[in-house]
Amino acid sequence: MDGIDEIWPGVRCALTDEQILGLYAPPHGPWLRMNFVESLDGAVTREGRSGGLGGDGDRRVFELLRRWADVVLVGAGTVRTEGYGAMRLSAEAASWRRAHGLAEQPVFALVSGRLDLDPTSSVFVDAPVRPLVLTVEEAPAERRARLAEVADVLDVGGTAVDPRALREVLHARGHERIHSEGGPTLFGTLLAAGVVDELCLTLAPTLEAGDAGRITRFPMAAPTAMEPAGILRSGGELLLRYTRADEATNADSSNGV
């Protein structure tokens, strides 16, 4: 298994988990982080799933990033495609979170306007913390009622998800550190609304071709200036971290719990 080295802005070899967690510590206050992997030619999936692109380093950081989260946010389509189960961190991770003043487990929040989710799936049945389902007022009433038995179903828009309302609803429940694992449609919607603070992007050392999409999907362009915050390397993988340009100074000066 390849270790993880820091190559910018510092240079350190064979980072420990604690060192990696220190590098990814979010600032105090509200913060929305996106985490994705893509190939050198921009493919976000291999054979329809992102999991096939990432190597050991990507998987290690993927798990570590969840430790900092109050809530892990994922679109319903990604939950289905990637085969998500219950959001449950390891005993070691839960202990680390307790030591840092966090709840043992982050809350799992699924975004779905149509509520096309199975309330009998392990996502809900085996969840260590009652999940959230973020939807819209016009979502199907019957599906809403079924999901309300296994999750807190919250409206974050009328006919479409409103990213700012989404953040406000989560913040009102004490979930300031939002960690999103996709997918591209959710990312594009959040980006266009100007609510994304940080992108953690693994660049996989592979060329894929094919018809795979990008990490963001939205009908209109949403140019957003970003600043590099760190680069790690694991074998051929590069793990890049960017913060929004107008957030970069605050992020550099206020990391911590």
- Helix percent band: 25-40%
Q: What order do the SSEs take from the amino end to the carboxyl end, as H and E? A: EHEHEHHEHEHEHEHEEEH
Shape: globular
Average of pLDDT: 94
Describe this entry's structure for a reader:
The protein has a single domain, classed as 3-Layer(aba) Sandwich (Dihydrofolate Reductase, subunit A). 27% of the residues lie in helices and 23% in strands. The chain contains 9 helices and 10 strands. The chain has a 10-stranded mixed β-sheet, sandwiched between helices. The longest helix has 10 residues. The radius of gyration is 18 Å and the shape is globular.
Quick tags:
single chain; 257 residues; alpha/beta; Dihydrofolate Reductase, subunit A; 10 strands; 27% helix; RibDG_C; 5-amino-6-(5-phosphoribosylamino)uracil reductase activity
